């Protein structure tokens, strides 16, 4: 039996019952694909339901404010996904009349929709035979066909895309793409793959050459940057505090946080006070360290070591916010966890 048919048979016998597999609505498929980028299924599923409840169609999402979208997304990370989701919803609703593009060629032009997502939507919703290639697919193809080209190289991306396109079942592209991804997630796992029950065990190059641990090959990642954040948590006698919105193209763009002092190394009180922004120094209160050990927040390309400093004041500027107002703002999970544990 051919690779594609064997794979689809495995899928029909073993696939998980996931909510986005019960629909061919391009809005729901697009929403699920954006949520599941860089996110495990079990973590993403509650967000999928939350978004569908709040925004049942693309027009409802387009009519939301960016702050509302970011607040609902809070905790998923990689917030550019949420901003792109909202931008594209507005484009589809207001520029395309609410109709999703119906081909891979047009889908891939949408902001936040790359090759993989466009191929997934095109195959699932429109049965277009476009191969959807993600990390699971790289792993399966690398092992079964014995490919050692690095998956994160330009040559590797091209080579794996061509192979996936070559072996796709053109009569059942939706089932094939989902089967290949599911097989990588549930059978051909990164560690401890289930080779004993694998339908390709007799032909898998990696298994038969004892190279399971070697494939797929990836080029070394860039060095992780270490950053030191110091949040100044101002609290007035009324229980109000100050929050600022992050600007620019760095991490957490558009989210809110306490006034931030970033230092080159772990801050002590002496050098922290010297770096306090002028607009806050007039309050003239000495910060008190809340956490002796920095909270370490790990992102893919940087680790953030965070200290929270409490500054109690008689009063704050008129833009100060109550806890109820703070709780309505979209914030990084690092800030959310602090707010949940600190007694305002």
Automatic annotation (TrEMBL):
Its EC number is 3.2.2.31. Pfam families: HHH, HhH-GPD, NUDIX_4. InterPro entries: A/G_AdeGlyc_MutY, DNA_glycosylase, Endouclease-III_FeS-bd_BS, HhH-GPD_domain, HhH_base_excis_C, HhH_motif, MIG/MutY, MutY_C. It catalyses: Hydrolyzes free adenine bases from 7,8-dihydro-8-oxoguanine:adenine mismatched double-stranded DNA, leaving an apurinic site. Keywords: 4Fe-4S, DNA damage, DNA repair, Glycosidase, Hydrolase, Iron, Iron-sulfur, Metal-binding. Residues 35-186 form the HhH-GPD domain. GO terms for molecular function: 4 iron, 4 sulfur cluster binding; 8-oxo-7,8-dihydroguanine DNA N-glycosylase activity; adenine/guanine mispair binding; metal ion binding; oxidized purine DNA binding; purine-specific mismatch base pair DNA N-glycosylase activity. The keyword Phosphoprotein does not apply. It comes from the Bacteria. The keyword DNA repair applies. GO terms for biological process: base-excision repair; mismatch repair. Adenine glycosylase active on G-A mispairs. MutY also corrects error-prone DNA synthesis past GO lesions which are due to the oxidatively damaged form of guanine: 7,8-dihydro-8-oxoguanine (8-oxo-dGTP). This is Adenine DNA glycosylase.
């Amino acid at each position: 039996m051919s690779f594609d048919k064997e794979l689809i048979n495995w899928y029909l016998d073993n696939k998980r019952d996931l909510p986005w597999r019960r629909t061919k609505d391009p809005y729901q498929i697009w929403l699920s694909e954006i949520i599941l980028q860089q996110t495990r299924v079990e973590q993403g599923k509650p967000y999928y339901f939350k978004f569908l409840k709040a925004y049942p169609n693309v027009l409802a999402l387009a009519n939301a404010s960016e702050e509302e979208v970011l607040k609902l997304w809070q905790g998923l990370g990689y917030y550019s996904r949420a901003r792109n989701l909202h931008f594209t919803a507005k484009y589809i609703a207001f520029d395309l009349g609410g109709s999703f593009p119906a081909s891979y060629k047009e889908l891939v032009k949408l902001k936040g929709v790359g090759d993989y997502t466009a191929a997934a939507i095109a195959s699932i919703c429109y049965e277009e035979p476009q191969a959807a290639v993600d990390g699971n697919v790289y792993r399966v193809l690398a092992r079964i066909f014995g490919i050692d080209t690095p998956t994160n190289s330009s040559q590797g991306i091209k080579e794996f895309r061509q192979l996936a396109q070559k072996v796709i079942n053109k009569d059942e592209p939706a089932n094939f793409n989902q089967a290949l991804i599911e097989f990588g997630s549930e059978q051909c796992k990164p560690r401890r793959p289930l080779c004993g029950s694998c339908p390709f065990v007799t032909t898998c190059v990696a298994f038969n050459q004892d190279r399971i641990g070697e494939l797929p090959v990836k080029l070394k990642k860039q060095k992780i940057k270490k950053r030191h954040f110091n949040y100044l948590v101002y609290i007035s006698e009324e229980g109000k505090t100050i929050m600022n919105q992050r600007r620019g193209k760095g991490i957490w763009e558009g989210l809110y946080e306490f006034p931030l002092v970033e230092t080159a190394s772990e801050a002590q009180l002496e050098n922290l006070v010297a770096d306090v922004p002028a607009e806050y120094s007039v309050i003239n209160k000495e910060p008190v360290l809340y956490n002796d050990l920095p909270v370490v927040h790990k992102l893919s390309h940087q680790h953030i070591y965070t200290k929270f400093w409490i500054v109690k004041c008689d009063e704050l500027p008129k833009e100060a916010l109550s806890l109820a107002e703070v709780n309505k703002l979209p914030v990084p999970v690092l800030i959310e966890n602090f707010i949940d544990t600190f007694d305002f």
